[in-house]
Design goal:
The structure is a single chain. The protein has about 210 residues and is α/β, with parallel strands linked by helices. It contains 7 helices and 7 strands. The protein has a domain at about 65-210: Rossmann fold (3-Layer(aba) Sandwich), CATH 3.40.50.150. Strand 2, helix 5 and strand 3 form a beta-alpha-beta unit.
Length: about 210
């Protein structure tokens, strides 16, 4: 989606974004820097189809952060973002909640390079980039992750592998960003703890919360 707005309108959008999520000046600056880095790198490599500031704010940043209305991140120490791509939703959540430790799971090298650069530029501590594919990650790692996030990444059947008893993460929770029309597969329904509709930028979407117990 292209947005043709002037600088004053962009400035207003940033201030509205700051107010919506009660950001400090430092956090706002981090988001603005993140946006600029995303736009700069996207000129060289394909990170995202969404490249204008207004759409990045709405479709990446706001969409990543709206989940805070449905889960108390103050009670969580570590999250993992599966197939994070250019860092969504993991990095926006790390900016909003600096206490979080974050594992960014990504297998594509150009995106891995971008993630390393962004976490360094934004001075995000306890933010780890893991290049293992999902199945290998489940077999070979044991981070103390309490919450997994998946936004436009793997299919539900792949994601639900984390709930196998052999997985170190079978007691963790998973939040899946879904389209409004997404139909939950029958085999996955026993694991659904909440199906929460939400609206961002006039688009209806859903958060689906999975847990084995």
């Amino acid at each position: 989606m292209k947005s043709h707005v002037c600088n004053d309108e962009i400035s207003t959008l940033w201030q509205q974004f700051k107010k919506q999520f009660s950001l400090t000046e430092k956090q706002l600056h981090q988001f603005q820097t993140y946006c600029e880095l995303l736009q700069d790198w996207n000129k060289k490599i394909n990170l995202t189809a969404i490249t204008d500031s207004a759409s990045i704010i709405a479709d990446h940043f706001q969409d990543s952060l709206m989940v805070r209305s449905y889960i108390d991140f103050s009670t969580i120490s570590m999250i993992a973002d599966v197939g994070t791509g250019a860092g969504f939703p993991g990095i926006p959540l790390k900016i909003l909640y600096p206490h979080l430790s974050v594992v960014l799971i990504e297998v594509i090298q150009k995106k891995i390079n971008f993630l390393h650069m962004v976490t360094e530029q934004l001075e995000l501590d306890n933010c780890y980039v893991d290049s293992l594919d999902w199945r290998t990650f489940l077999r070979k790692t044991d981070y103390p992750v309490e919450l997994f996030l998946a936004r436009a990444s793997l299919s539900v059947d792949e994601l639900l592998r984390m709930f196998k008893q052999s997985s170190a993460y079978h007691n963790a929770q998973l939040i899946y960003w879904a389209s409004y029309t997404f139909s939950i597969p029958e085999y996955a329904q026993p694991l659904v703890k909440k199906d929460q509709p939400y609206t961002v930028h006039n688009k209806k979407r859903r958060y689906i919360f999975f847990r084995a117990n």
